[in-house]
Amino acid sequence: MTTRREFIQTLGATSAALAGLSACGGGGHSSGGGNSQPPVPVPAAPILVIVNIDGGYDWLNVTPPNAGANLAPYQAKRATLGIDPATLIDLGSGMGLNPDLIGMNDLHAAGRVAWIPGIGMPNPNLSHFTAGDLWGQGAAVPAGTGWLGRFADTAFNASGDVLRGLTVTSDLAVMLRGQTRSFVSIPSAGGYVFPAYLFSGTTMPDAPLIETGWGDSLNAASSDLGYQAAAQAGKLFFDAQNNPAFGTGGSLTARTPTILYPGDVTYPIKRLDGGNLNNSLSRQFKLIAQMIAAGLPTQIFFSRLGGWDTHSNQAVDHPNLQRALGGSIKAFYDDLATITTSSGNAQDRVMIITYSEFGRRVQENNGGTDHGTMGLSFAVGKAVKGGLYGAYPDLTGLDPNGNMKYSAAADFRGLYATVLERWLGLGATSTNTLLGSSYTRMNFL
Amino acid sequence: MAVLTAITSWTVADVQHFARRAGFGLTPADAAALQAQAPGAAIDAWVDGTGPSHDLTAFTAALATADMVTEPKVTASTTDPGSVDVALVAAPHAFLVDASNAWRNNLNTAQAYLAWRMHHNPYAFQERMALFWHNLFATGYHKVGKAALMLKQIQLFRTDGLDKFDDLLVTVSKDPAMCIWLDSILNNASGTSIPNENYARESMELYSLGADNGYNQADITQLALALSGWSFTLGDADYVPNPASPSQRTVADGHFKVYDGSSNAPDTRIYSGGLRASSYNMHRTGTVSLFGQTLDITTTAGGWAKGENALRSIVTVKGTNCSMFLAKRLLTHFVTTGYTAQDQTDVANMIQTAGFDMRVVMKTLLKSAFFFGSANRWALAEGPVSWIVRGAKMLCPPLATASAQSPKGYPAWRLFTNNANTFDQMGMKLLDASGPNGWHEHTAWLNSNTMRYRTKAAAALALLELNSSIPLFPTSVTTDWFPVAPANAQAVYDRLVALLQPGPIAATVSAAWLAALLPSPFTWNAASQAKARELAFLILCSPAGQLY
Description:
The structure holds two protein chains of two kinds.
Chain A: H1 4-14, E1 47-53, H2 71-77, E2 89-92, E3 95-97, H3 104-109, E4 113-119, H4 128-137, H5 147-155, E5 165-167, E6 184-185, H6 207-219, H7 225-240, H8 280-294, E7 300-305, H9 314-336, E8 340-341, E9 344-345, H10 346-349, E10 350-355, E11 360-364, E12 369-371, E13 375-381, E14 387-388, H11 412-422, H12 428-435
Parallel strand pairs in A: 1-7, 1-10, 4-14, 5-6, 5-7
Antiparallel strand pairs in A: 2-3, 4-13, 8-9, 10-13, 11-12
Helix pairs in contact in A: 6-7, 8-9, 11-12
Chain B: H1 12-22, H2 28-35, H3 39-48, H4 57-62, H5 107-120, H6 124-136, H7 141-144, H8 147-160, H9 165-173, H10 176-181, H11 198-205, H12 217-226, E1 230-234, E2 239-242, E3 245-251, E4 255-258, E5 269-270, E6 287-290, E7 293-296, H13 308-317, H14 319-335, H15 341-353, H16 358-367, H17 384-395, H18 399-404, H19 413-418, H20 422-426, H21 448-462, E8 466-467, E9 470-471, H22 477-481, H23 489-500, H24 507-517, H25 526-541
Antiparallel strand pairs in B: 1-4, 1-5, 2-3, 6-7, 8-9
Helix pairs in contact in B: 1-2, 3-16, 5-17, 6-8, 8-9, 9-13, 11-12, 13-14, 14-15, 17-21, 21-25, 23-25
């Protein structure tokens, strides 16, 4: 039996071991020993969980260079915040894994993680909001709607499928807004019923009558955009809460995971200051697991972990954030294995995809890092062909502003095309139409 | 083309449109009273807060008993020397947000206090502009950590919100909450240190120019150098101890200072604590090159702080870009999102002509034929805070009545804001923006979750929801809504529409509502009054009810 360490070393030996001057890809690093297991087939009823790493995360300190030509410029520009390469878990191709991304080393060793460094766009924008919108729209020519919203337009039943796309955030990201369909927002498991009071789920007087009136009001035609937005959003809530999974008082069946999540009192890994790793992503993942267990017919979930805009105090904040991110993903992945659904074990059905609006400047400032370009996405799942994809940026050849350059091999729309076609089952032509062009698929699926 | 010439006459419908956008609505009676005045003078007085209708005497007096929720006792610490119990404060009492109560540091109380002010302040425009600027200069309690500093910033918007925009931009940039929010206090560029770009970037992208509108990365870096060391100091009196645990001291105020190594006055502390005879040296010396100009950021003139010249040059050098940015934000909040490029240019030109004087700008815009255009009526989805405040203003007793009642007839705003972060779930966590770009407006206010919470809020408001026997919104159908008994079902509907002022509701919808709730024969009694509440609920949470 090959050890995990040997597995990682094997990856390193078979890699270029130089800076990522060329595209990694094709799943060439997914083979190996250790705990690595071959991917399972793409399931018949796949579930996609998107994780928005919000704020533009400093992925250079998540998967830093640990060898090759990138190491020297990294160390020079990260004099105080840089991660000691000796502490990293080797991922190959001169790329290491920060152990603060807890749990991900195990998933990587099992061959369940596709790393996509350098992912980005040819016209990177250093505005959180412009960049976030571009990521959300995911189109050759952005026109306002989101790539998953357009998928909903294309694939969802025009008058049904109200729970097929669901965000556990209270807002609705651009990514989830379609021309005619949007995702439903359900950020908590209880009291999801109409009509209801603020302080209790007590049924209102004349509830059936009010429901009728509500329905009637929604049927009123108006060309006003605000009216339509309110009507569609209201109807989505109204229809979704009628799903039988929401039982008495509009609550999902209670569920206590048998897996510890970051933030749980007995979770063994803590913040740097010793406190619990309380974080919103664990709460969101628990809710998603509860929804899957309850049988909600949801195909796509959206979640978010914010706080990554580390202009300052990065030495403290960033490790804590990584622990929350990695630990939550690992716990969620493990938790899914305990859930049986009508279409099989949940772990077999779920793939997790992460993204952030941009990476951060290679050169640190006084205690933090400013906005930069290019990012790191990763996909986690049993059907994923683990390894390195994309293209690790060349840190010896930054742009005039000191930022990483784009590589077409890691175009973010290539990730979307891969997910749409190979996970969500959209046809190749429809995928290209949805994105506005044909982007090279990534072979982690 | 935006016709910005002032109207010379107006109807009650015009007045109501104006009051919805430039305040938080007017009841039919108050709208009729305002309509009797000429629009020019009336709008001047509305913006300036002058004239008898803006007498603050009763409002100010009522603040002393505005909070309807009892504040529980705080038990003294057993380990902290000098601790004493803090007694229960029985309702009604003032919102405990004054400086002496800064130690309570309660976001919900601060939110409730703002809601109460929006509801009852006769100078409604001041609160509306504060809400507008709060969205533009969006700042978040979750990072600032001090409710007192957040409220200090809101007060800044009240007092300075109609200044020249460049003055306001400078004032906000020196505000302690903002200095914390976007890391100005950590922007150390002394010597060859690399500056923290956070505030420099967002001050242009989000606060004055718009993304990629007239600046580049080099400008961001240069502005960050100019503003390095912008921070604040504190005196001992600016820390307010918790009487029940005096070692817990909460920052209630701060005083702008450029940390340039210069000597400090006695009793001067840095934000992170500790007396210092001189400030740290965090400010870059020399010159910066911003927008193609070379600016000395070491010396000062005219009372400006070091680097202030660079900040002000955003408006003076990039005036066209800045005016276009402001025009977009003003149009989106006050008029319509359906403006044309020419409309935006016209408003931007007006802003420049007015010298960025926001008082002149707002008067011009709000008097304009463009603002009153029929296409702009109900053309915006209303933000949730404005929406619930306006609903309360229409359905709850007015200040004079409420203050004379026992118990007081004010909404229990603190219960409303406490429960499940209602403002947050409705889409606007007041005083705690998740990010510096604030809240997107119009249709972005609306998703299935925000609509869910709007229906809950509508129920609380219209259906007299109680919590621990306290009504969230004390409303009387017979006294407040129908001082004159309606003669028939249609009259019930018409009166509620007149109060709540929703967008157009199709006749087929209203007919269906009335047929179900108030079928013939009509009798005005307790049963039909209960149905009137349900009808108000339906109007409030209907799609048309989200428009204003």
